[in-house]
Specification:
This protein is mainly beta and 489 residues long. It has four domains: 3-147, no CATH class; 149-293, no CATH class; 332-349 and 434-488, Archaeosine Trna-guanine Transglycosylase, Chain: A, domain 4, CATH 2.30.130; 355-430, no CATH class. The protein has helices spanning 3-11, 246-256, 271-280, 295-304, 376-382, 394-400, 416-430; strands at 18-27, 30-37, 41-42, 53-56, 58-67, 78-84, 101-108, 118-132, 135-142, 169-177, 180-183, 188-190, 195-203, 206-207, 210-213, 218-221, 230-237, 286-289, 308-312, 318-322, 332-334, 345-350, 355-360, 387-392, 408-410, 434-441, 453-456, 467-477, 482-488. The strands form five sheets. The protein has a 15-stranded mixed sheet that branches. A hairpin with a 2-residue loop joins strand 1 (18-27) and strand 2 (30-37). The radius of gyration is 26 Å and the shape is globular. The relative contact order is 0.13. The model has no long low-confidence stretch (mean pLDDT 94). This is Phage tail protein.
């Protein structure tokens, strides 16, 4: 079925809407799949899966809200499926293990063959519960839930004093990090795995000779150190080839780290989106993971460096979306004919800013009062955690009576030029009044995606001529054929 045919069905007042749900659950230690629907449905012998009866238990539709964070924080989208348990037949389901099990849902018409149903959700069950005696509820999360685990928990092992320490991992270009002492006898230091290059090894800030073994992610001091304060700058993880940019590192962290059973595969990534993002955002970045930072947090730190966010598409693929105006792509025209009558309303006015301060090129080991014979200017740099760049609009500052010394936004960026450009981009975005509008959309609006560019038009709020915007919220009610849409303009 084509997009146009599916859209025509969504718009049809005679359409009979239903959802098919396939969810994995552990029953008595055995993983099984349960087939649930909102309408009686049995697949045919030629369907995939064949000859399967879906139990018509879903009464609350498939409600799911997805939202882009405007603060750069990692977040999970969530939703709910309500199942009929009026006769208590599903009481035993509450004893089964549903947590962190995959769930998929499709939307379509009872008269359609199984292959024509459209995938509308591919995520994770957060847990099962009951909101009333007559129902049970499946709480849903997007697949980023699978990345809510530490990037790595590999310990050094052996018999050294650091045997229980977690091996650190450098991603991209990392300045002045503290490596783990892996062998105190041979003065070996290192990381979890192979790195592209280690350089500027220092003891208390002073360069020291070393023997490098980058393929193993190790180096040995060849002369006694001045102190035990050993630091090194490193071009990090090179598992898929060294690529110190946001999109390749996001792909690497999602597919090669974390719990093996929960890692993403290439099928879980929107490869076209990641390639386009990489082409548009080639900035050098660096992130040093020496603690229990989880995958989702690390991915969001990298993406937020350019005002972007990692999100999951409704078909369960990871994307990187930058909030920008105008947003990239061909905008969708949205007017009163696409909204329920008089449903458009302003829900949030974002604060205007007159200045943006970007922190970049993080010094991962701040060292104050260095006593070795390095130049004072170098000592000052090693005592400073962040370099900064600030963009200011004096006219906006005066008009709105704002500060020109804003809170610092820390990033993984590496160069002055990239930090300057990002500060200027964010200032241009936020030095004018931005507003989020929400409206209750007609069925065709259910095809929108987070981050999609739009032109919003209405006879209220100064939108008569249409204003460029970007979709930042979608709250679907698939059985009702309705969606609440949030647009930043």
């Amino acid at each position: 079925m084509t997009d146009a045919q599916f859209l025509a069905w969504l718009q049809s007042p005679s359409a009979i809407r239903m959802v098919l749900i396939e969810v994995q659950v552990n029953v008595g230690g055995v993983e099984v799949t349960r087939f649930i629907s909102s309408w009686p449905y049995v697949t045919g012998p030629a369907d995939v899966p064949p000859n399967i009866e879906y139990l018509p238990l879903a009464t609350g539709g498939l409600a799911f809200t997805e939202q882009v964070s405007l603060t750069g924080e990692a977040g999970l989208s969530g939703g709910d499926v309500e199942l009929d348990n009026g006769d208590g037949a599903l009481d035993g389901w509450l004893a089964d293990v549903w947590r962190n099990r995959p769930i998929k849902a499709w939307s379509g018409d009872p008269a359609w063959p199984r292959s024509d149903f459209r995938l509308i959700f591919d995520g994770i069950v957060a847990d099962i519960g009951s909101s009333a005696r007559e129902s049970i509820n499946l709480s849903l999360r997007d697949k980023l839930q699978r990345l809510d685990t530490p990037i790595a928990e590999a310990k050094l092992g052996g018999t050294s004093p650091n045997k229980d320490a977690t091996l650190p991992i450098p991603f991209g270009e990392c300045h002045n990090v503290t490596p783990l002492l892996t062998n105190p006898v041979t003065l070996e230091y290192g990381f979890l795995g192979a790195v592209e290059s280690s350089f500027e090894v220092r003891t208390n800030g002073k360069p020291i000779a070393v023997a490098l073994n980058d393929q193993a992610g190790r180096f040995n001091l060849t002369t006694p150190p001045y102190s035990m304060a050993i630091t090194v700058s490193v071009q990090g993880d090179k598992g898929d080839g060294y690529a110190p940019r946001i999109a390749p590192l996001v792909r690497r962290i999602a597919t090669a780290y974390g719990k093996a059973s929960d890692r993403f595969t290439l099928a879980d990534l929107d490869l076209a989106n990641l390639a386009a993002f990489d082409a548009a955002h080639p900035q050098l970045v660096g992130l040093y993971v020496a603690d229990r930072t989880n995958q989702a947090q690390a991915i969001q730190q990298l993406a937020a460096s350019v005002g972007a966010q990692a999100i999951m598409s409704r078909t369960g693929q990871l994307r990187l979306v930058q909030i920008a105006l105008p947003a990239a792509g061909v905008p969708v025209e949205i007017g009163p004919e696409h909204m329920r009558l008089d449903s458009l309303r302003p829900v949030q006015r974002l604060p205007v800013v007159a200045a943006v301060k970007i922190g970049f090129d993080k010094n991962w080991t701040v060292q104050t009062n260095l006593t070795t014979s390095i130049p004072p200017a170098h000592a000052d740099l090693y005592a400073t955690e962040w370099l900064t760049e600030t963009a200011v609009d004096e006219a906006v500052r005066a008009r709105y009576r704002l500060t020109d010394d804003p809170p610092q936004i820390d990033t993984c960026l590496k160069t002055n030029a990239d930090a300057q450009a990002e500060a200027a981009r964010r200032l241009a975005l936020n030095k004018v009044q931005r507003t989020i509008y929400e409206f209750d959309g007609e069925p065709e609006m259910m095809m929108l995606e987070l981050g999609q560019p739009v032109v919003l038009r209405d006879d209220r709020f100064g939108l008569q001529d249409g204003v460029p915007g970007v979709v930042v919220l979608l709250s679907h009610q698939w059985l009702a054929g309705r969606v609440t849409v949030g647009v930043l303009v």
